[in-house]
Amino acid sequence: MPQTLSLNGDWSLAWHDDFPQFLTAETAPLRTQLTAHVPEPVHTTLMRHGLLDDPRIGLNSLKARWVEEQFWVYRKVFVTPASLPQPLPSLETRLRRDEGRGVRGVGSPPPFPPTKEALRGREGAGGRDAKVFLTFDLLEYDAVIYLNGQEIGCHANAHRPARFDVTGKLRPEGEENTLVVRLDAGLYAVADKPGADYQTTQLSLLTKNHWMRKGQWQRGWDWQQRLMNVGILGDVRLEYGTFQITQLQVYAIPNPDFSEATVYAQLTINSSEEHAGFVQFSIIEGDESYYEDQLILGKGISTHFLEVTITNPKLWWPIGHGEPFQYTACIFLAIDNENTELLRKVGIRKVEVDQSAHPEEGRHFILKINNKPIFCKGGNWVPPDMLYSTVTPERLEELVDLAVGANFNLLRIWGGGTWAGHDLLELCDKRGILVWHDLLFACAKYPGDYPEWAAEARREVQWGMREFAHHPSLVVWCGNNEIEEGDWNWGYDRQFRTHPHYALFHHDFPQIAKREAPYAFYWISSPYSPDYENPTDPTVGDQHPWGVSLRQNGPTDWWEYRTYVDRFPNEGGVLGASSPATLRQFLPEGQRQLNSPTWDHHDNPYAMQPMTPGQPGRAYQTLTHWTGLHAEQLDWETYAFASALLQAEGLTEYITNYRRRMFSSSAAIFWMYNDSWPTTHSWTIVDYYRRKKLAYHPVRRAFQPVSVVCAPLENPELPPDGVGVFGINETDQEWHGYLMEQIDTVTDCCPCDPRQDSRSVVIPPNSTVLLATLDPHRPWKPGEFAQAVLYDKTYQPVAQHRVFFHCFQELKLAPNPTLVLSLHEGVLTLRSEVFVWGVCLDTDGERPVADNCFDLLPGVPYSLPWDTALLGEPKILRTGNGLFAAG
């Protein structure tokens, strides 16, 4: 078996702002040497030594800017390992192990008698003909590597590993070697390269991030300050033996009727000389399936293709539609005395996008898994930390669990970040969360007109499509984020370097996807429209509906979403303040107030940007538009509550509009799910510290599988103020229950009894249906609203919804409503005789409450589980009505 020697652990680290070559010699002059725990970012090393304050807190990210301007030199001394490591047990022993033992777990392999000639070989993996490679899984960013004073190579791509042949360059067994890595954040190598030809934003002109193959968000985005990562961020190891597996690709394709599926494997092997051996490829769940053959390795790099057929396979399904079943694929190699076993989990599913003609206009855009239309619900994923390599598997699991808890079935990996990575994708595989994955290009013209840069981009894309192929959750590869829109609408064709990246996204990457990723659907860009239509066209392709939140004039009116007909909206969002607990955590004492220096530093520029000249910023003007309140007249905690409550309102409008149109619209994916650093205002429902913002539970309810939505009707024969009540059912079975709908006012209660005032309804599986029409000719007065409650067969409420036609400041909400709370056998029930907006049991997003930030409809009880031992006695902390108490 090829052997590895980990070079993780303690390295020495020094820095210099000029002449870094002084530090790279094997006998370099002494300077300050810090102990770095590789892998880790330079920023983390400096924090641990007390030389840098946490850049996530206060104004510290400004104090950290010097880090990206330095040259950093890592040094590691290690001993050459023994040249004859012990081989694994013989091939025959491995293949005849007892049932239930080893990695297979079930079944017994068929006879597999290799010839004696094939089994004979050298003494072990470290013989004189063995190759030795040095591998860095993740380098940030521009690196030159030296071994024993000799330069062995360089690397400048954080999106694929760095691998160097060091055969013959190590000192004899037992002697010390000196490994030196000189790197920087990338600014120096691009300093002389064209900037304005490709980018116009000031941040990009400084960093020229479009040249660097690293996460683009590091140069700063509206939702994070600039922090250019630097350091050895991934594992480091020596790999040695007569052969090395440089990459393994595994994926499954079912046949049209799902009676069989073929699992494909592609092995890329680097061999020191010609070898003969055997390979066994098996699927080891259920009835075992095997492929076995002689393996002939030529000297150098060779590629080998294997396949196994499974009869009547179990399919992988997204959450809510079936079991996300996975098989274990096992590849066992026996080459001379070296035996290697590789395992991959793989799911069998068919992926397609239905773009058939839409009955009204344009085309559908419906993601189908195993021929079943899936309405996609979720948010956009960005790297969960500005120091992204510090994110642990446990933190990823917490975020995925929160997404599942919010009734997500899809995460979109945004193209300005990093690869999702195996840890995140494995969690999505197990939970049944679909993944739309942009390739790592976003919001810029890219230098595809430079052959060397374009070749590296192609290598990166090929590596990623091979590396992550076995993950069944990964169903869409998308060429980039918003570059097609830039080509059409942002003036990319009005300055030098016209469409320099066009061939990459329209020619090169689609070819790579056709060859390497038949397991997924490939899409040119997001948004993108086929048939040469503008990518903003709402009737074809996918859409980024930003016209509401990013409009340039007038207030942010979320009710405009009610008319949006987008076929597959997968980016559009609403800003809202973080919870008081989070604001307290990153705002230092004395800075916890609106528009303090730290508040602004962590704020979103779109929140501060005035929508109307002379007015406060967008977020603050939005508050005034909807409530009549003025941010500067509120204490910061009250403002944070009001802002977060309005975000919940806006996201609910976004989601319910598209869900009630299923499958005319086939998604409700918003920007964005998670944060990369603590923020004042953000687009997310889960903040940097994984606290649930107030919008979390409203989004969860809006995404629940069986739901009800009240919305203005669009029938041209009726006045525009008519209201339809839509039933939504994403399950596989007809839903039978009861509907109670009525018109009410915010200050009066119409007594109702669901057993008397509701009627039986049926909602077909995986569909939306119009259940009722409410007073289409009614002139709506302030304070009047339409409401609907869906009950199950036992008259327990399943979902509720309401629709207003006047802003909250016009509704005359009761400022101090009387709420009656009763707790019985672990169920908390709340009731009010008047409408109560946004009842909050947890304002900080830290308590494990089952529900939060919900409305009380007049006279309609609202119940949720309540564990007194865990949560204490129930208490209403705030309501939206209370915002008007001072008036």
From TrEMBL:
GO terms for molecular function: beta-mannosidase activity. The keyword Metal-binding does not apply. Residues 33-84, 129-233 form the Beta-mannosidase-like galactose-binding domain. Residues 99-124 are annotated as: Disordered. The keyword Hydrolase applies. GO terms for biological process: carbohydrate metabolic process; glycoprotein catabolic process. Residues 248-349 form the Glycoside hydrolase family 2 immunoglobulin-like beta-sandwich domain. Keywords: Glycosidase, Hydrolase. Its EC number is 3.2.1.25. It catalyses: Hydrolysis of terminal, non-reducing beta-D-mannose residues in beta-D-mannosides. InterPro entries: Beta-gal/glucu_dom_sf, Beta-mannosidase-like_N2, Beta-mannosidase_GH2, Galactose-bd-like_sf, GH, Ig-like_fold, Ig-like_GH2. SUPFAM superfamilies: (Trans)glycosidases (SSF51445), beta-Galactosidase/glucuronidase domain (SSF49303), Galactose-binding domain-like (SSF49785). Belongs to the glycosyl hydrolase 2 family. This is beta-mannosidase.
